[in-house]
Amino acid sequence: MTAxxxxxxxxxxxxxTVARLPxxxxxxxxxxxxxxxxxxxEALAAAAGVNSAxxxxxxxxxxxxxxxxxxxxxxxxxxxxxxxxxxxxxxPVVIVGIGNLGHALxxxxxxxxxxxxxxxxLDADPARHGEMVAGIQVRxxxxxxxxxxxxxxxxxxxxxxxxxxxAVADRMVACGITSILNFAAGVLSVxxxxxxxxxxxxxxxQVLAYHEQxxxxxxxx
Amino acid sequence: MTAxxxxxxxxxxxxxTVARLPxxxxxxxxxxxxxxxxxxxEALAAAAGVNSAxxxxxxxxxxxxxxxxxxxxxxxxxxxxxxxxxxxxxxPVVIVGIGNLGHALxxxxxxxxxxxxxxxxLDADPARHGEMVAGIQVRxxxxxxxxxxxxxxxxxxxxxxxxxxxAVADRMVACGITSILNFAAGVLSVxxxxxxxxxxxxxxxQVLAYHEQxxxxxxxx
DNA sequence: TCCGTTTTGTTCTCCCGTTCACAAACTCCT
DNA sequence: AGGAGTTTGTGAACGGGAGAACAAAACGGA
Lengths: 221, 221
Ligand SMILES: NC(=O)c1ccc[n+]([C@@H]2O[C@H](COP(=O)([O-])OP(=O)(O)OC[C@H]3O[C@@H](n4cnc5c(N)ncnc54)[C@H](O)[C@@H]3O)[C@@H](O)[C@H]2O)c1
Ligand SMILES: NC(=O)c1ccc[n+]([C@@H]2O[C@H](COP(=O)([O-])OP(=O)(O)OC[C@H]3O[C@@H](n4cnc5c(N)ncnc54)[C@H](O)[C@@H]3O)[C@@H](O)[C@H]2O)c1
Fold this sequence. Notes:
Two copies of one chain form a homodimer.
Chain A: H1 15-33, E1 38-39, H2 41-48, H3 52-60, E2 66-67, E3 71-73, H4 74-85, E4 91-96, H5 100-107, H6 109-112, E5 116-123, E6 132-133, E7 136-140, H7 144-151, E8 155-158, H8 162-174, E9 179-182, E10 195-198, H9 201-219
Parallel strand pairs in A: 4-5, 4-8, 5-7, 8-9, 9-10
Antiparallel strand pairs in A: 1-3, 2-3, 6-7
Chain A binds a DNA duplex through residues 14-17, 40-42, 51, 53-54, 56-57, 59-60, 64, 66-72.
Protein backbone atom coordinates (compact mmCIF):
# COMPACT_ATOMS: atom_id res chain seq x y z
CA MET A 1 0.00 0.00 0.00
CA THR A 2 2.70 2.43 1.02
CA ALA A 3 4.91 2.79 -2.02
CA UNK A 4 8.23 4.26 -1.07
CA UNK A 5 10.57 5.77 -3.59
CA UNK A 6 14.22 5.20 -4.40
CA UNK A 7 16.36 6.37 -1.51
CA UNK A 8 15.22 4.92 1.78
CA UNK A 9 16.37 7.62 4.17
CA UNK A 10 18.91 7.06 6.94
CA UNK A 11 16.87 5.52 9.74
CA UNK A 12 14.23 3.15 8.49
CA UNK A 13 11.42 2.74 10.99
CA UNK A 14 9.25 -0.39 10.64
CA UNK A 15 5.66 0.30 9.63
CA UNK A 16 4.28 -1.36 12.76
CA THR A 17 6.37 0.92 14.90
CA VAL A 18 5.28 4.03 13.00
CA ALA A 19 1.67 3.13 13.75
CA ARG A 20 2.41 2.96 17.45
CA LEU A 21 4.42 6.15 17.82
CA PRO A 22 1.27 8.35 17.88
CA UNK A 23 -0.05 6.18 20.70
CA UNK A 24 3.12 6.71 22.71
CA UNK A 25 2.91 10.40 21.95
CA UNK A 26 -0.57 10.62 23.39
CA UNK A 27 0.39 8.64 26.49
CA UNK A 28 3.36 10.96 27.04
CA UNK A 29 1.14 14.01 26.68
CA UNK A 30 -1.21 12.61 29.31
CA UNK A 31 1.71 11.91 31.64
CA UNK A 32 3.14 15.36 31.07
CA UNK A 33 -0.18 17.03 31.82
CA UNK A 34 -0.35 14.98 35.01
CA UNK A 35 2.95 16.53 36.04
CA UNK A 36 5.09 13.44 35.53
CA UNK A 37 8.66 14.39 34.70
CA UNK A 38 10.20 10.96 34.24
CA UNK A 39 8.79 7.54 33.50
CA UNK A 40 10.04 4.01 33.00
CA UNK A 41 9.39 1.93 29.91
CA GLU A 42 7.14 -0.21 32.07
CA ALA A 43 4.97 2.74 33.10
CA LEU A 44 4.80 4.22 29.60
CA ALA A 45 4.00 0.84 28.12
CA ALA A 46 1.13 0.41 30.56
CA ALA A 47 -0.20 3.85 29.67
CA ALA A 48 0.01 3.04 25.98
CA GLY A 49 -1.42 -0.44 26.34
CA VAL A 50 1.56 -2.36 24.94
CA ASN A 51 4.31 -4.71 26.07
CA SER A 52 7.29 -2.90 27.60
CA ALA A 53 9.82 -4.84 25.52
CA UNK A 54 8.01 -3.77 22.38
CA UNK A 55 7.99 -0.18 23.53
CA UNK A 56 11.72 -0.18 24.17
CA UNK A 57 12.45 -1.75 20.82
CA UNK A 58 10.23 0.79 19.09
CA UNK A 59 11.99 3.68 20.80
CA UNK A 60 15.37 2.22 19.96
CA UNK A 61 14.65 2.87 16.28
CA UNK A 62 14.56 6.59 17.02
CA UNK A 63 17.76 6.63 19.07
CA UNK A 64 18.81 6.33 22.70
CA UNK A 65 16.69 8.87 24.47
CA UNK A 66 16.41 7.07 27.83
CA UNK A 67 18.73 6.76 30.79
CA UNK A 68 19.45 3.32 32.16
CA UNK A 69 18.43 2.87 35.75
CA UNK A 70 16.23 5.96 35.49
CA UNK A 71 13.84 5.91 32.55
CA UNK A 72 12.74 8.55 30.04
CA UNK A 73 12.34 12.28 30.46
CA UNK A 74 8.69 12.70 29.50
CA UNK A 75 8.89 16.06 27.72
CA UNK A 76 12.15 15.31 25.99
CA UNK A 77 10.92 11.97 24.64
CA UNK A 78 7.64 13.54 23.65
CA UNK A 79 9.44 16.13 21.59
CA UNK A 80 11.65 13.54 19.93
CA UNK A 81 8.70 11.38 18.90
CA UNK A 82 6.72 14.41 17.71
CA UNK A 83 9.64 15.49 15.57
CA UNK A 84 10.10 12.02 14.13
CA UNK A 85 6.42 11.73 13.18
CA UNK A 86 6.34 15.24 11.85
CA UNK A 87 3.70 16.73 14.12
CA UNK A 88 5.95 19.55 15.23
CA UNK A 89 5.12 21.17 11.94
CA UNK A 90 1.79 22.40 10.65
CA UNK A 91 -0.13 20.19 8.21
CA PRO A 92 -2.88 21.84 6.18
CA VAL A 93 -5.74 19.45 5.41
CA VAL A 94 -8.78 19.56 3.15
CA ILE A 95 -11.95 17.58 3.87
CA VAL A 96 -14.16 16.63 0.93
CA GLY A 97 -17.78 15.57 1.50
CA ILE A 98 -19.37 17.54 4.32
CA GLY A 99 -22.25 15.19 5.17
CA ASN A 100 -22.80 13.43 8.47
CA LEU A 101 -19.25 12.24 8.84
CA GLY A 102 -17.66 15.34 7.33
CA HIS A 103 -19.42 17.50 9.92
CA ALA A 104 -18.10 15.35 12.75
CA LEU A 105 -14.56 15.45 11.35
CA UNK A 106 -14.66 19.21 10.87
CA UNK A 107 -15.76 19.64 14.48
CA UNK A 108 -13.18 17.24 15.84
CA UNK A 109 -10.72 19.11 18.02
CA UNK A 110 -8.22 16.24 18.11
CA UNK A 111 -6.88 17.16 14.67
CA UNK A 112 -6.07 20.78 15.36
CA UNK A 113 -4.37 19.94 18.62
CA UNK A 114 -1.99 17.60 16.80
CA UNK A 115 -0.78 19.94 14.13
CA UNK A 116 -3.46 19.28 11.53
CA UNK A 117 -5.19 22.44 10.36
CA UNK A 118 -8.36 22.17 8.31
CA UNK A 119 -7.98 24.79 5.61
CA UNK A 120 -11.08 23.94 3.58
CA UNK A 121 -14.35 22.00 3.62
CA LEU A 122 -15.50 21.06 0.13
CA ASP A 123 -18.77 19.59 -1.13
CA ALA A 124 -20.28 19.06 -4.56
CA ASP A 125 -23.81 19.86 -3.39
CA PRO A 126 -24.60 23.57 -3.98
CA ALA A 127 -27.16 23.42 -1.15
CA ARG A 128 -24.30 23.04 1.31
CA HIS A 129 -22.16 25.88 0.00
CA GLY A 130 -21.80 28.79 2.37
CA GLU A 131 -22.78 26.78 5.43
CA MET A 132 -20.48 27.42 8.34
CA VAL A 133 -19.07 24.31 10.03
CA ALA A 134 -16.64 24.69 12.93
CA GLY A 135 -15.98 28.26 11.83
CA ILE A 136 -15.15 27.32 8.25
CA GLN A 137 -17.32 27.96 5.25
CA VAL A 138 -18.23 25.01 3.02
CA ARG A 139 -17.03 25.70 -0.52
CA UNK A 140 -17.59 24.12 -3.95
CA UNK A 141 -15.51 21.07 -4.78
CA UNK A 142 -14.18 22.83 -7.89
CA UNK A 143 -12.18 25.12 -5.61
CA UNK A 144 -9.93 22.19 -4.73
CA UNK A 145 -7.09 23.11 -7.07
CA UNK A 146 -6.79 26.71 -6.00
CA UNK A 147 -6.98 25.85 -2.30
CA UNK A 148 -4.36 23.14 -2.54
CA UNK A 149 -2.08 25.45 -4.48
CA UNK A 150 -2.60 28.35 -2.11
CA UNK A 151 -2.01 26.46 1.14
CA UNK A 152 0.38 23.78 -0.05
CA UNK A 153 -1.96 21.01 1.06
CA UNK A 154 -0.45 17.52 1.04
CA UNK A 155 -3.13 15.61 2.96
CA UNK A 156 -6.74 15.12 1.87
CA UNK A 157 -9.66 13.47 3.64
CA UNK A 158 -12.45 11.80 1.66
CA UNK A 159 -15.87 11.57 3.33
CA UNK A 160 -18.08 11.35 0.26
CA UNK A 161 -20.30 8.43 -0.75
CA UNK A 162 -18.39 5.48 -2.16
CA UNK A 163 -19.40 6.14 -5.77
CA UNK A 164 -17.72 9.55 -5.74
CA UNK A 165 -14.58 8.54 -3.86
CA UNK A 166 -12.41 7.47 -6.81
CA ALA A 167 -13.20 10.61 -8.78
CA VAL A 168 -12.39 12.78 -5.76
CA ALA A 169 -9.16 10.90 -5.21
CA ASP A 170 -8.15 11.37 -8.84
CA ARG A 171 -8.73 15.11 -8.60
CA MET A 172 -6.77 15.26 -5.36
CA VAL A 173 -3.83 13.42 -6.87
CA ALA A 174 -3.95 15.56 -10.00
CA CYS A 175 -3.51 18.75 -8.02
CA GLY A 176 -0.65 17.45 -5.92
CA ILE A 177 -2.07 15.80 -2.82
CA THR A 178 0.09 12.80 -1.88
CA SER A 179 -1.62 11.44 1.24
CA ILE A 180 -5.28 10.48 1.48
CA LEU A 181 -7.39 9.37 4.42
CA ASN A 182 -10.41 7.59 2.99
CA PHE A 183 -13.66 6.89 4.84
CA ALA A 184 -15.62 5.72 1.82
CA ALA A 185 -16.05 2.01 1.18
CA GLY A 186 -14.27 0.30 -1.67
CA VAL A 187 -10.74 0.31 -3.03
CA LEU A 188 -9.06 3.49 -4.22
CA SER A 189 -6.51 3.18 -6.97
CA VAL A 190 -3.79 5.80 -6.90
CA UNK A 191 -0.38 6.13 -8.55
CA UNK A 192 2.79 5.04 -6.76
CA UNK A 193 4.06 7.66 -4.35
CA UNK A 194 0.60 8.45 -3.03
CA UNK A 195 -0.28 6.99 0.36
CA UNK A 196 -3.84 5.96 1.13
CA UNK A 197 -5.11 4.94 4.53
CA UNK A 198 -8.61 3.59 4.80
CA UNK A 199 -10.90 3.67 7.78
CA UNK A 200 -13.75 1.23 7.42
CA UNK A 201 -16.12 1.10 10.35
CA UNK A 202 -18.21 -1.76 9.07
CA UNK A 203 -15.11 -3.92 8.77
CA UNK A 204 -14.37 -3.24 12.43
CA UNK A 205 -17.87 -4.26 13.45
CA GLN A 206 -17.75 -7.38 11.32
CA VAL A 207 -14.50 -8.48 12.91
CA LEU A 208 -16.15 -8.05 16.31
CA ALA A 209 -19.15 -10.02 15.09
CA TYR A 210 -16.91 -12.87 13.96
CA HIS A 211 -15.32 -13.20 17.38
CA GLU A 212 -18.67 -12.75 19.07
CA GLN A 213 -20.11 -15.62 17.07
CA UNK A 214 -17.17 -17.75 18.08
CA UNK A 215 -17.68 -17.00 21.74
CA UNK A 216 -21.33 -18.03 21.41
CA UNK A 217 -20.36 -21.29 19.70
CA UNK A 218 -17.86 -22.09 22.40
CA UNK A 219 -20.45 -21.64 25.13
CA UNK A 220 -22.77 -24.34 23.93
CA UNK A 221 -19.94 -26.83 23.56
CA MET B 1 -5.78 -8.05 22.52
CA THR B 2 -8.22 -10.71 21.49
CA ALA B 3 -8.32 -13.13 24.40
CA UNK B 4 -9.72 -16.42 23.30
CA UNK B 5 -10.95 -19.03 25.74
CA UNK B 6 -10.20 -22.70 26.15
CA UNK B 7 -11.48 -24.67 23.19
CA UNK B 8 -10.34 -23.17 19.91
CA UNK B 9 -13.13 -24.25 17.59
CA UNK B 10 -12.64 -26.53 14.62
CA UNK B 11 -11.35 -24.20 11.92
CA UNK B 12 -9.00 -21.54 13.24
CA UNK B 13 -8.88 -18.54 10.94
CA UNK B 14 -5.82 -16.25 11.20
CA UNK B 15 -6.58 -12.78 12.50
CA UNK B 16 -5.21 -11.12 9.37
CA THR B 17 -7.59 -13.19 7.26
CA VAL B 18 -10.58 -12.35 9.45
CA ALA B 19 -9.89 -8.67 8.90
CA ARG B 20 -9.95 -9.16 5.12
CA LEU B 21 -13.08 -11.28 4.87
CA PRO B 22 -15.38 -8.24 5.19
CA UNK B 23 -13.49 -6.63 2.33
CA UNK B 24 -14.06 -9.68 0.13
CA UNK B 25 -17.67 -9.68 1.17
CA UNK B 26 -18.14 -6.13 -0.01
CA UNK B 27 -16.35 -6.80 -3.29
CA UNK B 28 -18.58 -9.82 -3.88
CA UNK B 29 -21.68 -7.77 -3.16
CA UNK B 30 -20.57 -5.19 -5.70
CA UNK B 31 -19.92 -7.90 -8.28
CA UNK B 32 -23.27 -9.53 -7.57
CA UNK B 33 -25.13 -6.25 -7.97
CA UNK B 34 -23.35 -5.76 -11.29
CA UNK B 35 -24.82 -9.08 -12.42
CA UNK B 36 -21.62 -11.11 -12.30
CA UNK B 37 -22.38 -14.78 -11.64
CA UNK B 38 -18.85 -16.19 -11.52
CA UNK B 39 -15.44 -14.68 -10.93
CA UNK B 40 -11.84 -15.82 -10.76
CA UNK B 41 -9.56 -15.27 -7.78
CA GLU B 42 -7.67 -12.82 -9.96
CA ALA B 43 -10.77 -10.72 -10.62
CA LEU B 44 -12.00 -10.81 -7.04
CA ALA B 45 -8.55 -9.97 -5.73
CA ALA B 46 -8.42 -6.93 -7.99
CA ALA B 47 -11.84 -5.81 -6.79
CA ALA B 48 -10.76 -6.20 -3.18
CA GLY B 49 -7.36 -4.62 -3.69
CA VAL B 50 -5.26 -7.59 -2.64
CA ASN B 51 -2.88 -10.16 -4.11
CA SER B 52 -4.66 -13.11 -5.72
CA ALA B 53 -2.48 -15.68 -3.95
CA UNK B 54 -3.37 -14.12 -0.64
CA UNK B 55 -7.05 -14.18 -1.54
CA UNK B 56 -6.95 -17.88 -2.42
CA UNK B 57 -5.11 -18.72 0.76
CA UNK B 58 -7.61 -16.74 2.81
CA UNK B 59 -10.54 -18.51 1.21
CA UNK B 60 -8.91 -21.89 1.71
CA UNK B 61 -9.31 -21.43 5.48
CA UNK B 62 -13.08 -21.46 5.00
CA UNK B 63 -13.15 -24.51 2.78
CA UNK B 64 -13.07 -25.32 -0.92
CA UNK B 65 -15.80 -23.19 -2.37
CA UNK B 66 -14.28 -22.66 -5.80
CA UNK B 67 -14.12 -24.77 -8.94
CA UNK B 68 -10.74 -25.28 -10.59
CA UNK B 69 -10.58 -23.99 -14.11
CA UNK B 70 -13.74 -21.93 -13.49
CA UNK B 71 -13.56 -19.73 -10.44
CA UNK B 72 -16.03 -18.89 -7.70
CA UNK B 73 -19.81 -18.62 -7.79
CA UNK B 74 -20.29 -15.07 -6.59
CA UNK B 75 -23.50 -15.52 -4.61
CA UNK B 76 -22.49 -18.85 -3.14
CA UNK B 77 -19.12 -17.57 -1.94
CA UNK B 78 -20.74 -14.43 -0.63
CA UNK B 79 -23.10 -16.48 1.49
CA UNK B 80 -20.31 -18.67 2.82
CA UNK B 81 -18.20 -15.69 3.88
CA UNK B 82 -21.20 -13.94 5.40
CA UNK B 83 -22.01 -17.05 7.39
CA UNK B 84 -18.43 -17.43 8.57
CA UNK B 85 -18.21 -13.82 9.74
CA UNK B 86 -21.64 -14.00 11.30
CA UNK B 87 -23.38 -11.28 9.34
CA UNK B 88 -26.18 -13.58 8.28
CA UNK B 89 -27.59 -13.07 11.73
CA UNK B 90 -28.86 -9.90 13.33
CA UNK B 91 -26.57 -8.05 15.75
CA PRO B 92 -28.19 -5.53 18.06
CA VAL B 93 -25.88 -2.61 18.86
CA VAL B 94 -25.97 0.27 21.34
CA ILE B 95 -24.19 3.57 20.71
CA VAL B 96 -23.14 5.62 23.72
CA GLY B 97 -22.27 9.32 23.32
CA ILE B 98 -24.49 11.02 20.77
CA GLY B 99 -22.34 14.04 19.98
CA ASN B 100 -20.85 14.91 16.60
CA LEU B 101 -19.53 11.45 15.90
CA GLY B 102 -22.44 9.62 17.49
CA HIS B 103 -24.86 11.42 15.19
CA ALA B 104 -22.85 10.41 12.15
CA LEU B 105 -22.69 6.79 13.29
CA UNK B 106 -26.41 6.67 14.02
CA UNK B 107 -27.15 7.99 10.54
CA UNK B 108 -24.74 5.63 8.83
CA UNK B 109 -26.64 3.21 6.64
CA UNK B 110 -23.69 0.88 6.18
CA UNK B 111 -24.29 -0.72 9.57
CA UNK B 112 -27.90 -1.66 9.09
CA UNK B 113 -27.25 -3.13 5.66
CA UNK B 114 -24.68 -5.51 7.14
CA UNK B 115 -26.77 -7.00 9.88
CA UNK B 116 -26.05 -4.46 12.61
CA UNK B 117 -29.19 -2.97 14.12
CA UNK B 118 -28.90 0.07 16.35
CA UNK B 119 -31.33 -0.62 19.19
CA UNK B 120 -30.47 2.37 21.34
CA UNK B 121 -28.68 5.72 21.41
CA LEU B 122 -27.54 6.70 24.91
CA ASP B 123 -26.13 9.93 26.29
CA ALA B 124 -25.41 11.24 29.77
CA ASP B 125 -26.45 14.80 28.89
CA PRO B 126 -30.14 15.37 29.79
CA ALA B 127 -30.32 18.12 27.16
CA ARG B 128 -29.99 15.46 24.48
CA HIS B 129 -32.63 13.10 25.81
CA GLY B 130 -35.66 12.73 23.64
CA GLU B 131 -33.94 14.04 20.54
CA MET B 132 -34.67 11.88 17.49
CA VAL B 133 -31.63 10.75 15.51
CA ALA B 134 -32.11 8.51 12.51
CA GLY B 135 -35.55 7.60 13.77
CA ILE B 136 -34.34 6.57 17.21
CA GLN B 137 -34.86 8.51 20.40
CA VAL B 138 -31.82 9.42 22.49
CA ARG B 139 -32.19 7.95 25.96
CA UNK B 140 -30.40 8.35 29.31
CA UNK B 141 -27.21 6.37 29.79
CA UNK B 142 -28.65 4.77 32.91
CA UNK B 143 -31.05 2.82 30.67
CA UNK B 144 -28.08 0.77 29.43
CA UNK B 145 -28.70 -2.27 31.64
CA UNK B 146 -32.35 -2.66 30.77
CA UNK B 147 -31.79 -2.18 27.05
CA UNK B 148 -28.94 -4.68 26.93
CA UNK B 149 -31.01 -7.20 28.85
CA UNK B 150 -34.09 -6.66 26.72
CA UNK B 151 -32.40 -6.94 23.31
CA UNK B 152 -29.54 -9.28 24.18
CA UNK B 153 -26.98 -6.74 23.03
CA UNK B 154 -23.42 -8.09 22.70
CA UNK B 155 -21.78 -5.19 20.85
CA UNK B 156 -21.37 -1.64 22.16
CA UNK B 157 -19.98 1.48 20.50
CA UNK B 158 -18.30 4.21 22.54
CA UNK B 159 -18.32 7.75 21.10
CA UNK B 160 -18.01 9.75 24.29
CA UNK B 161 -15.13 12.04 25.26
CA UNK B 162 -11.99 10.17 26.33
CA UNK B 163 -12.42 10.91 30.04
CA UNK B 164 -15.75 9.07 30.12
CA UNK B 165 -14.75 6.10 27.97
CA UNK B 166 -13.37 3.80 30.67
CA ALA B 167 -16.40 4.30 32.91
CA VAL B 168 -18.74 3.60 29.99
CA ALA B 169 -16.77 0.49 29.08
CA ASP B 170 -16.94 -0.76 32.67
CA ARG B 171 -20.69 -0.35 32.71
CA MET B 172 -21.01 -2.10 29.36
CA VAL B 173 -18.93 -5.04 30.53
CA ALA B 174 -20.85 -5.23 33.79
CA CYS B 175 -24.14 -5.68 32.01
CA GLY B 176 -22.89 -8.34 29.63
CA ILE B 177 -21.50 -6.64 26.54
CA THR B 178 -18.50 -8.58 25.26
CA SER B 179 -17.43 -6.60 22.18
CA ILE B 180 -16.65 -2.90 22.14
CA LEU B 181 -15.85 -0.55 19.28
CA ASN B 182 -14.10 2.46 20.80
CA PHE B 183 -13.69 5.86 19.13
CA ALA B 184 -12.39 7.67 22.19
CA ALA B 185 -8.68 8.24 22.61
CA GLY B 186 -6.71 6.32 25.21
CA VAL B 187 -6.47 2.72 26.30
CA LEU B 188 -9.48 0.81 27.59
CA SER B 189 -8.85 -1.89 30.13
CA VAL B 190 -11.35 -4.72 30.05
CA UNK B 191 -11.40 -8.25 31.48
CA UNK B 192 -10.31 -11.24 29.40
CA UNK B 193 -13.04 -12.46 27.12
CA UNK B 194 -14.07 -8.96 26.07
CA UNK B 195 -12.88 -7.78 22.66
CA UNK B 196 -12.07 -4.15 22.08
CA UNK B 197 -11.34 -2.59 18.72
CA UNK B 198 -10.18 0.98 18.60
CA UNK B 199 -10.57 3.47 15.79
CA UNK B 200 -8.25 6.41 16.17
CA UNK B 201 -8.40 8.97 13.43
CA UNK B 202 -5.58 11.12 14.65
CA UNK B 203 -3.29 8.10 14.60
CA UNK B 204 -4.16 7.58 10.94
CA UNK B 205 -3.37 11.18 10.10
CA GLN B 206 -0.12 11.07 12.01
CA VAL B 207 1.01 7.99 10.12
CA LEU B 208 0.29 9.84 6.88
CA ALA B 209 2.20 12.84 8.17
CA TYR B 210 5.21 10.68 8.95
CA HIS B 211 5.38 9.34 5.41
CA GLU B 212 4.68 12.77 3.99
CA GLN B 213 7.59 14.20 5.90
CA UNK B 214 9.80 11.44 4.55
CA UNK B 215 8.77 12.15 0.99
CA UNK B 216 9.67 15.81 1.49
CA UNK B 217 13.08 14.89 2.94
CA UNK B 218 13.77 12.57 0.04
CA UNK B 219 13.07 15.31 -2.47
CA UNK B 220 15.75 17.66 -1.29
CA UNK B 221 18.36 14.90 -1.22
C1' DT C 1 -11.97 -40.73 -24.75
C1' DC C 2 -7.99 -37.87 -24.56
C1' DC C 3 -5.38 -33.66 -24.58
C1' DG C 4 -4.67 -28.75 -23.84
C1' DT C 5 -6.18 -24.85 -21.13
C1' DT C 6 -7.60 -22.60 -17.17
C1' DT C 7 -7.78 -21.80 -12.38
C1' DT C 8 -7.92 -23.43 -7.75
C1' DG C 9 -5.80 -25.21 -3.40
C1' DT C 10 -1.54 -25.87 -1.10
C1' DT C 11 3.29 -26.23 -0.10
C1' DC C 12 7.50 -23.96 0.61
C1' DT C 13 10.34 -20.17 1.53
C1' DC C 14 11.25 -15.66 3.11
C1' DC C 15 10.47 -11.64 5.81
C1' DC C 16 8.55 -8.86 9.34
C1' DG C 17 7.18 -8.30 13.90
C1' DT C 18 6.92 -9.93 18.71
C1' DT C 19 8.91 -11.51 22.82
C1' DC C 20 12.51 -13.22 25.83
C1' DA C 21 16.53 -12.59 28.18
C1' DC C 22 20.61 -10.33 29.47
C1' DA C 23 24.64 -7.35 29.41
C1' DA C 24 25.61 -2.50 29.75
C1' DA C 25 24.88 1.65 32.09
C1' DC C 26 23.23 4.60 35.50
C1' DT C 27 21.80 5.95 40.54
C1' DC C 28 21.92 5.69 45.28
C1' DC C 29 23.50 4.23 49.59
C1' DT C 30 27.06 2.85 52.67
C1' DA D 1 35.12 3.99 46.27
C1' DG D 2 32.42 0.08 45.87
C1' DG D 3 28.41 -2.68 45.77
C1' DA D 4 23.41 -3.32 45.41
C1' DG D 5 19.52 -2.25 42.88
C1' DT D 6 17.18 -0.44 38.57
C1' DT D 7 16.19 0.12 33.99
C1' DT D 8 17.56 0.65 29.22
C1' DG D 9 19.03 -1.09 24.71
C1' DT D 10 19.62 -5.04 21.86
C1' DG D 11 20.90 -9.80 20.25
C1' DA D 12 18.61 -13.93 19.38
C1' DA D 13 14.82 -17.16 19.15
C1' DC D 14 10.20 -17.64 17.67
C1' DG D 15 5.82 -17.30 15.31
C1' DG D 16 2.80 -15.72 11.80
C1' DG D 17 1.80 -13.82 7.54
C1' DA D 18 3.00 -12.72 2.44
C1' DG D 19 4.11 -14.20 -1.96
C1' DA D 20 6.01 -17.47 -5.44
C1' DA D 21 5.41 -21.55 -7.54
C1' DC D 22 3.31 -25.76 -8.69
C1' DA D 23 0.47 -29.96 -8.61
C1' DA D 24 -4.32 -31.29 -8.76
C1' DA D 25 -8.74 -30.73 -10.72
C1' DA D 26 -12.23 -29.22 -13.74
C1' DC D 27 -13.72 -27.87 -18.38
C1' DG D 28 -14.00 -27.82 -23.50
C1' DG D 29 -13.04 -29.36 -27.94
C1' DA D 30 -11.71 -32.75 -31.15
N1 LIG E 1 -21.63 8.42 8.80
C1 LIG E 1 -20.79 7.49 9.27
O1 LIG E 1 -20.71 7.26 10.48
C2 LIG E 1 -19.94 6.72 8.38
C3 LIG E 1 -19.27 5.66 8.91
C4 LIG E 1 -18.43 4.92 8.11
C5 LIG E 1 -18.28 5.26 6.81
N2 LIG E 1 -18.94 6.28 6.29
C6 LIG E 1 -18.73 6.59 4.90
O2 LIG E 1 -18.32 7.95 4.79
C7 LIG E 1 -18.88 8.50 3.66
C8 LIG E 1 -19.70 9.69 4.04
O3 LIG E 1 -20.72 9.30 4.93
P1 LIG E 1 -21.83 10.31 5.36
O4 LIG E 1 -22.70 9.61 6.32
O5 LIG E 1 -21.19 11.59 5.80
O6 LIG E 1 -22.61 10.55 3.98
P2 LIG E 1 -23.49 11.81 3.56
O7 LIG E 1 -24.33 11.39 2.42
O8 LIG E 1 -24.13 12.38 4.76
O9 LIG E 1 -22.44 12.88 3.05
C9 LIG E 1 -21.77 12.79 1.83
C10 LIG E 1 -21.45 14.18 1.36
O10 LIG E 1 -20.61 14.11 0.21
C11 LIG E 1 -21.06 15.06 -0.74
N3 LIG E 1 -20.62 14.63 -2.08
C12 LIG E 1 -21.18 13.69 -2.87
N4 LIG E 1 -20.50 13.57 -4.02
C13 LIG E 1 -19.46 14.43 -3.94
C14 LIG E 1 -18.41 14.76 -4.82
N5 LIG E 1 -18.25 14.14 -6.00
N6 LIG E 1 -17.53 15.69 -4.44
C15 LIG E 1 -17.68 16.30 -3.25
N7 LIG E 1 -18.66 16.03 -2.38
C16 LIG E 1 -19.54 15.11 -2.73
C17 LIG E 1 -22.54 15.09 -0.59
O11 LIG E 1 -23.05 16.33 -1.09
C18 LIG E 1 -22.70 14.96 0.92
O12 LIG E 1 -22.70 16.21 1.55
C19 LIG E 1 -19.69 7.41 2.98
O13 LIG E 1 -18.90 6.81 1.99
C20 LIG E 1 -19.94 6.45 4.09
O14 LIG E 1 -20.05 5.14 3.60
C21 LIG E 1 -19.78 7.02 7.06
N1 LIG F 1 -15.80 13.98 15.83
C1 LIG F 1 -14.89 13.22 15.24
O1 LIG F 1 -14.74 13.24 14.02
C2 LIG F 1 -14.02 12.34 16.03
C3 LIG F 1 -12.97 11.76 15.39
C4 LIG F 1 -12.14 10.90 16.09
C5 LIG F 1 -12.39 10.66 17.39
N2 LIG F 1 -13.38 11.25 18.03
C6 LIG F 1 -13.60 10.92 19.40
O2 LIG F 1 -14.90 10.44 19.58
C7 LIG F 1 -15.42 10.90 20.79
C8 LIG F 1 -16.67 11.68 20.53
O3 LIG F 1 -16.39 12.78 19.70
P1 LIG F 1 -17.49 13.86 19.41
O4 LIG F 1 -16.89 14.83 18.46
O5 LIG F 1 -18.74 13.22 19.02
O6 LIG F 1 -17.64 14.56 20.85
P2 LIG F 1 -18.91 15.33 21.40
O7 LIG F 1 -18.44 16.12 22.56
O8 LIG F 1 -19.60 16.03 20.29
O9 LIG F 1 -19.88 14.19 21.91
C9 LIG F 1 -19.68 13.46 23.08
C10 LIG F 1 -21.04 13.04 23.63
O10 LIG F 1 -20.84 12.13 24.70
C11 LIG F 1 -21.73 12.46 25.75
N3 LIG F 1 -21.20 11.97 27.00
C12 LIG F 1 -20.24 12.53 27.78
N4 LIG F 1 -20.00 11.77 28.85
C13 LIG F 1 -20.80 10.71 28.77
C14 LIG F 1 -21.02 9.58 29.59
N5 LIG F 1 -20.32 9.38 30.70
N6 LIG F 1 -21.93 8.69 29.22
C15 LIG F 1 -22.63 8.87 28.09
N7 LIG F 1 -22.48 9.91 27.26
C16 LIG F 1 -21.57 10.82 27.60
C17 LIG F 1 -21.84 13.95 25.70
O11 LIG F 1 -23.05 14.38 26.30
C18 LIG F 1 -21.83 14.22 24.19
O12 LIG F 1 -23.11 14.21 23.65
C19 LIG F 1 -14.34 11.71 21.45
O13 LIG F 1 -13.62 10.89 22.33
C20 LIG F 1 -13.45 12.10 20.31
O14 LIG F 1 -12.12 12.24 20.71
C21 LIG F 1 -14.23 12.08 17.36
